[in-house]
Design goal:
The protein is an alpha+beta fold. The chain has a domain of about 130 residues: Protein Transport Mog1p, Chain A. It contains 5 helices and 7 strands, in the order αααβββαββββα. The protein has a 7-stranded antiparallel β-sheet with strand order 1-2-3-7-6-5-4, with helices on both faces. The longest helix is centred in the last third of the chain and has 15 residues. It comes from Actinoplanes digitatis.
Length: about 190
Amino acid sequence: MKSGKFHTFSAPLATLLALTAVLAGCGDAGDGPEPAAQGDAPVSVPSPDETVEATTPAADTAAKAAAPDSCDLLTIAEIKKLTGLAVSIRTDTPDRCIWIVEKPTDSHYGGLTIGVEGYATAEKAEEAFKWYVDEPVPGIGDEASIKNDDPASLAIRVGAAKITITEQNPAITREILFELGRSAARNAA
């Protein structure tokens, strides 16, 4: 190897070397303390006044199953009626639905996205929703809030679900976003 040059490794070789270094530290060298017996380990027991909550994959799955499907919250006809825009494409993913909306007369297009997050209970959704409150909007769902960022985003809590509607088309005004939110909240209930 020439002086001043770095030695390069292929990705598989570098991964193997890193894994070897990690595993070398995991062996039993016999020079460390013996592991504590099961009876010696300290145990933390909550007091009777404490509430202990644990989430499990089953509880998370149940919360998501109870949440409405994002693509069922607005129909293409509702979007067309409320926005005056044509809907050209709809894409759905596990937690959101995206529509491409455009004004046929000026070929300006953008998106409309609806995301849904399910919670185990309405109380948990209400607690989580506090983090999304920017500017409260009365009269939509159980509670709603708008963020006036670019793009604007309307968050709505309906029972144990948080629905987020985000516009990416300048033709969708605040008032139109509110109407889309009212319709989505009705359809989620």
